[in-house]
Amino acid sequence: MKRQLALIRFALGSARRRAGRSFALAVALGLVTFALSAVLFLTEALRREFRLAAAALPDLTVQQLAAGRPALIAETHRASIAALPGVVSVQPRVWGYYFVPSLSGNFTVVGVETGSETVRRDLSLVMLKGRLPRPGASGEVVMGEALATFLGLDLDDAITLPVGRAEKRLQLVGLFRSEVALWTADVILMSLADAREFLQVPPGQATDLAVRLSTPDEATVAARKIAELLPGARIVDRQLKTRTYDLTFDTRGGLLGAMLLPALVAFLVLAWDRLTGVGPGERREIGVLKATGWRTSDVLLARLWENTLIGLYGAGPGILAAYLYVFHARAPGLAGVLLGWSTLYPALRLTPAVDASQVLVLGCLVVLPFVAASLVPAWRAATRDPHGLLRGTA
Amino acid sequence: MKADRPIMVRAIGLTKRYPAGRGEKTALREVSLAIPRGEFWIVNGPSGSGKTTLLGLLAGMIAPTCGEVQLDGRAITHWRDHHRALVRRHLVGMVFQEFALVPGMSLEENVFLPLVPQGGPDRAGRERGRALLERFGMAAFADTPVERLSAGERQRGAIIRALVTDAPILLLDEPTAALDTENVRILLELLLGLRAEGRTILATTHDRRLAEDPRVDGVLSLVDGALEP
Amino acid sequence: MRSTTWHRIRPLAWLLLLAAAVGWMLQDAAARRAGQAARAPWVGAVVRLLGAADLALSSASRWLRHPSLTEPGAPFADGPAILDNDPAGAALAPPREVLAGAPEAAQGPARGPRKP
Known about the structure:
The complex is a heterotrimer of chains A (394), B (229) and C (116).
Chain A: H1 2-17, H2 19-54, E1 60-66, E2 69-71, E3 73-74, H3 77-82, E4 87-100, E5 105-112, H4 117-126, E6 127-130, E7 140-143, H5 145-151, E8 158-163, E9 166-176, H6 181-184, E10 187-191, H7 192-199, E11 205-206, E12 208-213, H8 219-229, E13 233-237, H9 238-276, H10 280-291, H11 296-327, H12 334-339, H13 356-382, H14 386-391
Parallel strand pairs in A: 5-10, 7-9
Antiparallel strand pairs in A: 1-2, 1-12, 1-13, 3-11, 4-5, 4-12, 6-9, 7-10, 8-9
Helix pairs in contact in A: 1-2, 1-11, 2-9, 2-11, 2-13, 9-13, 11-13
Chain B: E1 7-20, E2 23-36, E3 40-44, H1 51-58, E4 66-71, E5 74-75, H2 81-90, E6 92-95, H3 107-111, H4 123-135, H5 151-163, E7 169-173, H6 181-196, E8 200-205, H7 208-211, E9 218-223, E10 226-227
Parallel strand pairs in B: 3-8, 3-9, 6-7, 7-8
Antiparallel strand pairs in B: 1-2, 1-4, 4-5, 9-10
Chain C: H1 2-50, H2 96-99
């Protein structure tokens, strides 16, 4: 222990004596760490948000397929599915997308039973301003703040949107709170009847059926039974949705990480180059150490400590900067690259999934290859003949 | 030479050849010497005669092409590198031609450099180092970066470093090269004082001020890698 | 002498400062997670209302709002410059893991169920 502390003190002195080189390496390492950490923090935080929400998902969602494409499902299937053992409820849902050319994208239209106590209770929990749509009233909608702003609507303002050859007038009566903006940024919530009219879903049809089970673990069994009842239907369980989401972010994060890998490799090559090009001053220093009784292992250890310290001084601020960038500055630039293009972004107020183990992994991911890359140059320098090093011939 | 003293530094037929161009260059040719404990010897010779190579071989820094080196009765020639490093830490203190102090480090840090791998100086080592700094008149410069010291001061700093491990053998390579007459006189007094403590000292030089001093115990002449009879 | 001591301690002081900053970061993250727990009822409510937990992060054109419900391949067919709203443009089949664990009737080719 005493020996390691003495070598660490020496290593710190060495790094200070070669301040320019140490600083350059630390800065480069810091930048690479920053980039990798920012991607990791962002993807993990998003994954965490989704996972938290996934708990409230229906156990199964039943969709009808026609010619392999999602189609509307007949509400009459509700009864036969509800009769299956283990099924607690079957809720037909009416939702869909409305394409707005001026937005160059879709917003999501969701129909709910505005008269239902459960719905009204849930709505009042998540609304920031305004009032709940009146049961039975037509044209009253609740929107996400981002969408309302985009459409230039304030509370009680109205907008008319084309529906087929006709038009539908919608009045904004409520806004979702910003804490749920991640989910509601592009949502227009309206009554079931309005949603049917708006999305042109005929009575007796629904977009899909949401199934809740008494034992969620039995989802696979229940899905199989439903598939037997409804050949041609697609049944998606909660696990599959979670896995798809994970894979989506794994893929995207992985792609970004793969793009950053050349940067990491370039940095390692730079580090190798800087460290192998042991200057005459450094060679003399190693010569002095060996001539005064330092063994090869002592010299090597001192160099490893030096590079580990440089690594820590680089990676540490890199990780910190990434944390501040993602969770305080909300990842300007990176969010767009990672999440894909969108004309309607919620404010990225994410909760960190960062813990000590993640920080350790990140640190090791960058510092260990750097220290490893420095091993061979350090060994080559340490095994040189001290006599030659002192005379400048080795 | 006092015949009853044990031999601290012995070289037997030391030869060192280096590759040079297409052939070889012989830096040392069958050099044999024996220096008893507590004596102060000089190896005198012109530049390029192999003095530095000889010291390097004696300190175990380089391996001879053939021949043997014995220090304090132990043959170190075929020892592995890390054992020879320990020789340089505990048995031999070496003062190099250009002092070989690490710039950017203070004098005190340079002095204690040999002790870093064993965890830094223990209490005895620290006291010894401080005492040496005092004795050599360098205590006031302990925290001074060595590049700010004069040649004479650096010389003394290098000697202190060589002594901090309390090594019984002191090897000095051209110790007077950068010194004026006054500093050479001071150096000689210091070395004679160390001899009086029982240390075995071997210095290489082409400086007659050192070689012709009557107080040294013996002078060897090295010319073209061989000792003159 | 004092400045030399500070000179020696400075690197260690920076390292301690770094450690403290990382400690602050972990503590801040933990505090935010605790704050998030307070939002859990709202999140649950919104998921029940919307019927889906998918985050509103993509323009929902190629990808669409509920990637897991439309085309399994849609999330993997990202083309940031493509503005169509047709979800069926996947050029590559999705990884098999997406379909693994799904009900047997729904397994098989990415775009449709296998006939029982």
